[in-house]
Amino acid sequence: MKLLRRTALALAATALAAPLALAQSAPKLKVGLMLPYTGTYAALGNAIENGFRLYIDQQGGKLAGREIEYFKVDDESAPPKATDNVNKLIKRDHVDVLIGTVHSGVAMAMAKAAKDSGTLLIVPNGGADAITGPMCATNIFRSSFSNSQPGYAMGEVAAKKKLKTAVTITWKYAAGDESVQGFKEAFEKGGGKVVKELTLPFPNVEFQALLTEIAALKPDVVYTFFAGGGAVKFVKDYAAAGLKKSIPLYGAGFLTDGTLDAQGDAADGLLTTLHYGDELNTKRDTEFRLAYAKTFKLQPDVYAVQGYDAAQMLAIGLNAVKGDVSQKAAFAAALEKAKIDSPRGTFTLSRSHNPVQDFYLRQVVGKENKVIGIASKALADPARGCRM
Ligand code: PHB
Predict the structure, then answer these.
(1) Residue 279 in 3-state DSSP?
(2) Which phi and psi angles does 251 have, rounded to 5°?
(3) For residue 101, which of 148, 138, 67, 144 has the smallest C-alpha distance?
(4) Any idea what DSSP says for residue 351?
(5) Do residues 145 and 199 make contact, with C-beta atoms less than 8 angstroms apart?
(6) Which residues pair with 363 in a beta bridge?
(7) Atom of ligand 1 nearest to the CA of 128
């Protein structure tokens, strides 16, 4: 009897306290990180998460008054598992926002699931042109690039140097194909010719037979897209095959980003194009780099920047809707007119929600991708097929 009375009193007290507690703290914002934590892109996934968390921590762990709660899935850069993986976050964990991923094929499956379910998605790397092309949507954004962008910038550089023939080599999937198409479009517009397009399946790294073919073709330049573990091995194999001395190797900047410690001398002198680089020497970048190095005991790379900016973009959208993610049109409108204060330099979003940004020409000097010029200014992706 006594016990019952005490329980009833306790319940009454809780009932009184509950509305007060609710009014004081908004529910946590559930953020679903779908990234590769294993495989050839594992380091890229970790850098994106680090960058994302750094920005959130700098805001005291909250955006628009809502504390952040993380849910994580390792997507293994495996497209066949992508739909099941993203549904763990959407249907099981009921996340408010999806952040992911690195691999274009997996990112496309995420974009489809986001479009179908209406879940907010910010892509912090995967450059598949389709995501900001035919798949574009009010609730889908990208903090990184579209695959054709760095390739296009490098095609312009190669053409300006009056190089005439190029061979391309990459993994056979959206990122490699579209990177090569971007290069080819600009290089051929400038008077060059791509004489051979070599590919191997993702994430294979048996380059030997293809390097022998390059030696026989003797082009003026080789253009490549590789990233992560595959980029480390390709750069080493290219030098070991003796090709570095005779045929310049140009790449989308992923070839040498976050990889220089492992590549050693083999990367020295390589030219690449990317929307980030070392020694930008701006106040914004210097502060970011110091904070990142202090927190993670690592130097940041382009992936860390893209993760950081995904969090900044989320903050801009959320602040505009006071934390209410269901207001999709207002969330999008805020980002569409935003100038995003990135460590890479300020950027805006195109009507398809992809960054409009400068592409730097970089050269590897020691352990740095030293910025030596701007290859393409305020480059926008063509957003072909995007109707919103
Ligand atoms: C991609 O699959 O879109 C991709 C992967 C790694 C990169 C860049 C693009 O570094």
Answers:
(1) coil
(2) -145, 160
(3) 144
(4) T
(5) no
(6) 271, 370
(7) 3
Q: Which residues contact 85 (CB under 8 A, 6 or more apart)?
A: 34, 73, 75, 106
pTM confidence score? 0.94
pLDDT at 2: 43
> What parts of the chain have a pLDDT lower than 50?
1-23
Residue 72 Cα, ligand 1 centroid: separation in angstroms? 20
Cα 236 versus chain centre, distance = 24
Probe ligand 1: pick from 35, 40, 41, 142, max atoms within 8 Å of CB?
41
Q: Is the CB of 36 under 6 A from ligand 1?
A: no
Query: What's the chain's average pLDDT?
Result: 94
**303 CA from centroid of ligand 1 (Å):** 10
Q: In what order do the strands lie in the sheet with 140-142?
A: 62-63, 66-74, 29-35, 97-99, 120-123, 140-142
What does the pLDDT read at residue 150? 97
* DSSP letter assigned to residue 278: B
Nearest CA among 263, 271, 172, 180 for reference residue 224: 180
Instruction: State the DSSP H helix or E strand holding residue 290, giving kind and residue range, or none if neither.
Output: helix 283-296
Cα–Cα dist 51/349, whole Å: 20
Cα(313)–Cα(98) distance, rounded to whole angstroms? 13
**Does residue 75 contact residue 103 with C-beta atoms inside 8 Å?**
yes
CB of 104 within 6 A of ligand 1: the answer is yes
Spacing, Cα 127 to ligand 1 middle (Å): 6
Q: What is the pLDDT of residue 24?
A: 59
